[in-house]
Amino acid sequence: MNTNEDTPRGFAFALSAYLLWGMLPLYMKALAHVPAGEVVAHRAIWSLPLAGGVLWAIGRVGDIPAALRSPRMLGMAAMTASLISVNWGIYIWAIATGRALEAALGYYINPLFSIFLASVLLGERLSRMQWVAISMAAAAVVVLTWEAGHLPLTALGLTLTWGIYAYLKKSLPIGPNQGFLLEVLLLAPAALAYIVYLAITGQGHFLMGIPENTWLLLGCGAITATPLMLYANGAKLLRLSTIGIMQYIAPTMIFLFAVFAFGEEFGRAQMIAFPVIWAALVLYTVSMLQQAKRAKPRE
Fold it and tell me: How far is residue 143's CA from residue 47's CA, in Å, rounded to a whole number?
């Protein structure tokens, strides 16, 4: 049941989810020698038993057969499943190839892209402060593009795929836990076929003589499903404004890992672009809190 008040349980769920997402670069760095497509396939396959077990525990497994019989539901879930798999692939590739800073940038920009989507697709009116924040984010992208000579495609790819995924996910007429299981169910046949193909051709890393690879790939289910489900349950027990502020935890951790653990270059363009993004997020957060305060019913 949704709430307009923060609860300690909801805060614990959401904080755990964002901390796990923030730690994910360390796990993906350990899998940097495994192609992104193979890691994505294992994320889908090994999420299935965990997601199914959670639904069984809460007594909602019966929702899935009904969803599978609905062409509209299947079509929408196929779209969200495709977007999340592409998002996973870009993220895994970014961490493996030394582009964690761009990944952090993508997730910093995402809330600003989300409010832009709401304006374009839902006709929501944005405040002047929100338009300024969006313009500042665009300016930061221009700075990075000018310095590098090309668009920051990794950051933009993550922003677009996650932002559109989140938008479509809201329209999916099924609970978040059921929706996630439906998505990995749809991804599973192609993922399993790809894993079998890699095994037959000797290109796979699962059960191929190095136990560490096998355990890391098996663990992809837990590191994928656990934070998603923690977040889904936490979001129901927190105000939207609280969730909005907490979403900066993960990209900040990714940023810190990129600079201090992975040794990625934080050059002149980044020194300009990231503070501009942070300032834009401050404006966005202030605007969001003001809206939440105005929307709060007076006693």
Answer: 39
> Does 1 fall in a domain?
no
Q: Which residue has the tokens 């057969």?
A: 65
Task: For the full predicted model, state whether its pTM sits above 0.85.
Answer: yes
More confident call, 200 vs 176: 200
Sign of dihedral through CA atoms 31, 186, 251, 239?
negative
Contact yes or no for 106/160 (Cβ under 8 A): no
Cα 210 to Cα 118, 204, 215: the distances in Å are 47, 11, 9
- Phi, psi angle pair for 275, to nearest 5°: -60, -35
Domain count, the chain: 1
How many beta carbons lie within 10 A of that of residue 147, not counting itself?
Answer: 15
Helices (H) and strands (E) in the chain, counts: 13, 0
Token look-up 């499903």 returns 225
Q: Which domain holds residue 99?
A: 8-295
pLDDT exceeds 80 at position 133: yes
Residue 179 domain flag: yes
